Amino acid sequence: MAYLKPGLVILIAVIVATSADFRLPQAVRPTHYDIRLRTAVHDAEREFQGSVDIHLTVEEPTDKIVVHSRSLTVISAVLYEPTSDPWTEVEQPSHTYDEPTEHLTFQCTTPLQNGSDYVLRVNYSGRLQTELTAGFFRKYYRDNGGIRRYIAATQFRPTWARQTFPCFDEPAIRTTFTVSLIHHSSYNAVSNMPLEGPLVVDTVDPEFVVTTFAQSQPMPTHSLAFAVTDFEIKSLTPQQRALARSNVINDTEYGLTAGDTILLAYNTHFDWSFWNFMPNLVQIAVPDAESGASESWGLVAFGEPTLLFNPEVNDYRVRPAIAKTIAQAYAQQWFGNLVTVDWWNYFWVHQGMAAMYGYYGAQLAYPEDQHMDQFQLQVMQPALKLDASEEARPLNWNVESPVEIAGLFDSDTTRHKAAGVINMLRTVLGEVYWQTGVQKYLRTHELGSVTSEALYEALEETIEVLPPFPTNMTVKQFMDNWADAPGYPVVNVRRLYGTTTMIISQERFLSDKKLPSDYVWYIPYNGLHIPILDFPYHSWLITKSREHIVRYDDEKPFILNELPSVFYRVNYDSRNWELIIAAWVQSPDFTNPTARAQLIDDSFALARADLLDFSVVLRLLTGLKKDRDYLPWATADKVLTYLHDRLRGTDQWSWFVFYMITLVDSNYRTLQFGVVNADDTLNDKQLNELILSWTCRLKIFQCSGNAESMFREAVRADAGVHPDISPVVYCYGARSAVNDEFVWLYQRMFDSQNEAERSLLINAMGCSQSKEQLDAYLTSSIGAGVGSEVNYFDRERLQVVQAVYSASRVGVDALIDFLNNWDMADDFIYWLEQPAFDDAIANIALRTNNQEEFDRLKALFETVGSLAPEDVVSSAMATVKANLDWHDSLEAFIIAEFLERYVYDTISPQDTVT
């Protein structure tokens, strides 16, 4: 497969963008599409035939009709005047195609008259996508007999509708659609709208039928969706149903229940019912697809692991994850379908709204699961990490070409930061202003396309008394301030002890350097003082620095933003950090879990950026000894993993293990390995798994021995373990599994029809410590296309490789040995393609920690030669050099000194380390 590296793609996009106009001319606009598609996907056929009638109105005289098209072959085109029945043929225009802009131009011999209506009928052919879950794509699954069954579905956002039919593929252009799908009679079809009449036998082939759907609401091309499958249908209520392959159809029940619950919550919250505009809502579970969901209107395609739940094999994490994914996809029904952006520049607003509502909406429906806590872990913290580089770009970012537009959708930085900034706005406004403003926005702009200002204006108009902003500041000014600038600030808090003054200042935060910046962010903040005295709910820093007058006790810690929902980091003077550490060590209740989690995340980032002594982070983590909340532990997990990876194989390793023992000891003693308490909250379950993972990983407290025993019992009984402890038991059981036990795991994975369970088992097998087993496992990932008995999904082959190098250094060495043969490396590239090979090299380098490991990597480079691109090799060498240089860094010295002293201070002379 042709492969362009990201930098080259961006360079090409920039060159093309400077010499081409990607927007369509405005001379004509569509008023309706009538689409007819024929597919034989039941027979694995990729080619499809299409015909589209584009109803047009002429806005200004022209002799050209320009539409978007991608990878379509035009067979014929006829222009009609629909003023009579039958239509009057005007001419058969010629056509030309411009590949850089993807403009398909139909040239007429006579000008089209201003104000007149025409219909352009285009007959064409295309091919189903197989490498991307985009456009009109094909996927397959295996039925209970092991036979491949193929299905076709769509994902048109942002610019993939043009790959399926010639169209005006811009978000501001809304019109109605009628869709007819011609397919084999053993299959069924579904689209945004319900069926329009009974199925009709195809006049060309009596084994085929025509499924026609009712005319849609006016919508942009990216909201259109359809699918042709042999799936079964399940419904719990008349208006919502789910489609899935027959061997997992019962696993859709939770998704349907969650969908009903979330829709009810949204209908109330938005005061604008989904059913006002759409007559039904369909969920479809797509096999071998990426996690997440499409954003189409009334028909949402989910990757199977994000929709299907089987209580017999799926653990406790799956249900809240499904609720979050459904909540995000259903939020798009309002933000993106009911109201559309005028151009993709503004899409970050709707993207951020949907990402934020994924958690907020799930919490409205299931408050007991505390989804907004997960928002902090899964959105805010990653966004702050990603947006801390000099290369970060602002949210308001101009895009024109399809490559640039796709870059916005593929960017976790854009999606997460947008959600974080919008959530900050929601918090500043307060629930009443926010909810009222969103309702006004939806009512005012239903079935319309907008810029970001439309949302800001609606929110601004709801503010009546007690304005949340400083005098004369508007919602637009606040949001543009955060959206126009790359990156984000660190707020420095310096207490002047013995006075009533603190100094609060701001500067741009960068993870790897310090650069002067004159930019001033509009920063809302509040404070926690014990006790809270004279602190308003929101104060503002709208200059580089300011004095804040507040009465507080010099012996008590101060925390800025006790409920962190702001998109910046906070650093304190050294004495306040010490007060925070002392308070935490004494009792975790000194502040709430979200604040404790953010203290860890901020301190770690600040220390890595040389803005804070790393010993502060390590001492802060000692507060975890008494902490029974998942949020701070999950945040600390990233820090502890960093230390684990840096110190593995060094003289400081035993000190780190001792440090970990003291952190997890209290929590581990509350657990009974293998016992699942039905009364445990989601927080309890998450924390228990995290603690067990660390104790088993470090082989302390008999954890790994317990996991091995439980694993062997499962093998002997040929039965799975309880889903809630299966990740730990399968992984650490696989570590010492003999060949028959490893094969049992392997066969269990292949027999499973549940993709989430398959994923768990694939990861577990990567935990093996047997190089023989890992070599056979890696071989299976590239031999899947040879034997019909091997039934990996395509993306699972890559997951096998990732599971092996991610689990342990033994796996990294096994992967090196596997690739350290030119023929095997060549086969690896043939089956998994060059990007997978390059990614494997990068991850081996990332996990190379000493000279012996470096020598193994260099030997691999000598063996594979030109199979490893020069830039991949040079990047890997730079990564390893940075890893090795770290051991001589100040940070490494501080960590080593702290751990040595910690061990010495903790163990009394008569004690021994066990």
From TrEMBL:
<keyword id="KW-0325">Glycoprotein</keyword>
<feature type="signal peptide">
    <location>
        <begin position="1"/>
        <end position="20"/>
    </location>
</feature>
<dbReference type="Pfam" id="PF01433">
    <property type="entry name" value="Peptidase_M1"/>
</dbReference>
<keyword id="KW-0378">Hydrolase</keyword>
<keyword id="KW-0449">Lipoprotein</keyword>
<keyword id="KW-0862">Zinc</keyword>
<dbReference type="Pfam" id="PF17900">
    <property type="entry name" value="Peptidase_M1_N"/>
</dbReference>
<feature type="domain" description="Peptidase M1 membrane alanine aminopeptidase">
    <location>
        <begin position="258"/>
        <end position="482"/>
    </location>
</feature>
<dbReference type="InterPro" id="IPR034016">
    <property type="entry name" value="M1_APN-typ"/>
</dbReference>
<dbReference type="InterPro" id="IPR014782">
    <property type="entry name" value="Peptidase_M1_dom"/>
</dbReference>
<feature type="domain" description="ERAP1-like C-terminal">
    <location>
        <begin position="558"/>
        <end position="881"/>
    </location>
</feature>
<keyword id="KW-0732">Signal</keyword>
<dbReference type="InterPro" id="IPR001930">
    <property type="entry name" value="Peptidase_M1"/>
</dbReference>
<dbReference type="Pfam" id="PF11838">
    <property type="entry name" value="ERAP1_C"/>
</dbReference>
<keyword id="KW-0482">Metalloprotease</keyword>
<keyword id="KW-0031">Aminopeptidase</keyword>
<feature type="domain" description="Aminopeptidase N-like N-terminal">
    <location>
        <begin position="30"/>
        <end position="221"/>
    </location>
</feature>
<dbReference type="InterPro" id="IPR027268">
    <property type="entry name" value="Peptidase_M4/M1_CTD_sf"/>
</dbReference>
<dbReference type="InterPro" id="IPR050344">
    <property type="entry name" value="Peptidase_M1_aminopeptidases"/>
</dbReference>
<keyword id="KW-0472">Membrane</keyword>
<keyword id="KW-0645">Protease</keyword>
<dbReference type="InterPro" id="IPR045357">
    <property type="entry name" value="Aminopeptidase_N-like_N"/>
</dbReference>
<keyword id="KW-0479">Metal-binding</keyword>
<comment type="similarity">
    <text>Belongs to the peptidase M1 family.</text>
</comment>
<keyword id="KW-0336">GPI-anchor</keyword>
<protein>
    <recommendedName>
        <fullName>Aminopeptidase</fullName>
        <ecNumber>3.4.11.-</ecNumber>
    </recommendedName>
</protein>
<dbReference type="InterPro" id="IPR042097">
    <property type="entry name" value="Aminopeptidase_N-like_N_sf"/>
</dbReference>
<dbReference type="InterPro" id="IPR024571">
    <property type="entry name" value="ERAP1-like_C_dom"/>
</dbReference>
